[in-house]
Design goal:
This protein is mainly alpha-helical and 224 residues long. It has ten helices and no strands.
Length: 224
């Protein structure tokens, strides 16, 4: 399920419509397979799955399917969060109990952060988040490099950076994936340049590698 979902995301990011069509089919197949397994076990059917999501969408959008109104997207989202809170209370669930632990760490941090903010646990200003970032950096510097304490502080710093992105309306997962794609593109350019010189990147000195990196950056700017 996770693998197929990631392949669908890759197709979306690649703006490959034909590939997205195929990958969404693979995701849909997973839904059908899991539903059939559950049906064979007498647990639920795919009709139950469709009915449940349909009922949830209607229940959480009274401004669309009911008599209430929402003047802005923010109002609609606030009502969504309020209704979800009522559902959790009815199930005796805590605020973070519905956040799946299986999410990749960066996405997990974003989900936890957004949940906490929905309960009002938020910095008043962006400057407040920046202050926390600097605080976490100082705490990391005070630890022994490579120690368990350093690992904990790095986790704290990463979590705060996620909040720094969220506070600015930036999706941290998308931002980091963009940086990874950029790094890969520049590294490939370095490899091509090195090959043209009859060598490999790993055989070059750090100074020569840096020179190729800067060349790759320059070519990138000229093409954007």
């Amino acid at each position: 399920m996770v693998e197929e979902a990631y392949e669908a995301v890759h197709a979306i990011e690649s703006d490959d419509v034909a590939e997205l069509r195929d990958e969404l089919g693979d995701v849909l197949l997973q839904v059908a397979l899991h539903s059939q397994i559950a049906s064979d076990g007498g647990e639920f059917t795919i009709d139950d799955v469709v009915a449940a999501i349909s009922a949830k969408i209607v229940r959480r959008h009274p401004h669309v399917f009911g008599d209430l109104s929402a003047a802005t997207a923010e109002e609609g989202l606030a009502r969504w969060d309020s209704i979800k809170a009522e559902e959790r209370a009815a199930k005796q669930q805590g605020l973070l109990d519905t956040v799946p632990h299986a999410l990749p760490a960066l996405m997990l941090a974003q989900a936890i952060s957004r949940k906490a903010v929905s309960a009002g646990f938020e910095w008043e200003t962006l400057d407040g988040v920046w202050a926390k970032v600097h605080e976490e950096i100082d705490e990391l510097k005070a630890t022994e490099p490579g120690s368990p304490e350093a690992a904990e502080e790095i986790g704290d710093l990463l979590f705060t950076i996620v909040n720094l992105a969220r506070k600015q309306g930036i999706d941290a997962e998308t931002a980091l994936r963009g940086t990874c794609d950029k790094f890969r593109s520049r590294w490939s350019a370095m490899e091509r340049s090195a090959a043209e010189g009859g060598t490999q990147v790993a055989e070059l000195s750090l100074e020569d590698q840096e020179a190729l990196w800067q060349q790759a950056k320059l070519r990138e700017r000229k093409t954007t």
